[in-house]
Design goal:
about 260 residues; alpha+beta; Nonspecific Lipid-transfer Protein, Chain A; 5-stranded mixed beta sheet; 9 strands; about 20% strand; globular
């Protein structure tokens, strides 16, 4: 349930840049196609999923590990027709509630399976997250994190797009230099980001010929997120301080570039 590039934080960076919206962003419905989800009458199998999620949430490590990356997440359980949960992290505690608010915008929407839900409990149960376990978390959340980033209305702003220097087709790869196993495989995961007809589409896999290729490790993603969060405090800082910060953000992004054409 971790966000590689936290959507809400990067939106703050755009604001710090002093971009402002050059024109009204087109309507964005990040929850299109989702249902509010059940709030009662769960089947035994659905109840078992809720139980394991609540057991995970009750572990102190759940809030301490995930809080730096989101405060509200929607979980969509793909094994069932209409089972969704809202995860909220506040004041060092994690809460799980049935259903999702289709009128609100979470930090991330994460599709999960029953096995994923059980897997996160197994990861957190001993109170620590190993490098291999962290890689498994990132594998599950890598593509959803980019979808969440690009669903923000600010990401349709021309000034934001210029700042991020985002072409029409981008490949982003989650590196796996340590060779961690995920579902019996060690190959890296690539997401394709396509800008078309005024919207962003994110798909798992390498599709098309990219104009920009990026590669990040789990460590890179965590460090970049920390850098982004540090910028929130600069909202009212002097212009020179903001420019210096933005230069660090740009340098960090440039360091992830593998190829550009």
């Amino acid at each position: 349930m971790k966000v590689g590039f936290v959507a809400c934080v990067l939106t703050c960076v755009v604001g710090i840049a002093g971009c402002g919206l050059e024109e009204t962003a087109p309507p964005v419905n990040p929850l299109a196609g989702l249902h509010a989800g059940k709030t009662a009458d769960l089947t035994a199998a659905e109840q078992a999923v809720e139980d394991v999620l609540k057991r995970s949430a009750a572990l102190p490590v759940c809030a301490s590990y995930f809080a730096p990356f989101f405060s509200k997440a929607y979980l969509v359980i793909g094994d069932f027709d209409d089972l969704c949960f809202t995860v909220t992290i506040a004041d060092g505690k994690t809460t799980i509630s049935r259903g999702i608010d289709l009128n609100a915008c979470p930090d991330i929407v994460i599709p999960l399976s029953r096995d994923n839900c059980e897997g996160i409990f197994n990861i957190l149960e001993d109170g620590k997250v190993t490098d291999e376990e962290e890689y498994r978390i990132f594998r599950v959340t890598f593509v959803p994190s980019y979808r969440s980033l690009l669903m923000q209305p600010e990401m349709h702003d021309p000034a934001a797009q210029r700042f991020l220097d985002m072409p029409d087709i981008i490949h982003v790869t989650l590196k796996n230099d340590a060779g961690h196993l995920y579902e019996g495989r060690t190959r890296p995961l690539t997401a394709t980001i396509v800008k078309t007809e005024g919207q962003w589409i994110v798909a798992e896999g390498a599709h098309g010929v990219p104009e920009l290729s990026l590669a990040v490790s789990v460590k890179d993603a965590k460090a970049f997120t920390e850098l982004l969060r540090s910028g929130i405090a600069l909202k009212d800082a002097p212009k020179a301080e903001k420019k210096a910060y933005l230069a660090r953000v740009k340098a960090s992004l440039d360091a992830m570039v593998v190829a550009r054409r």
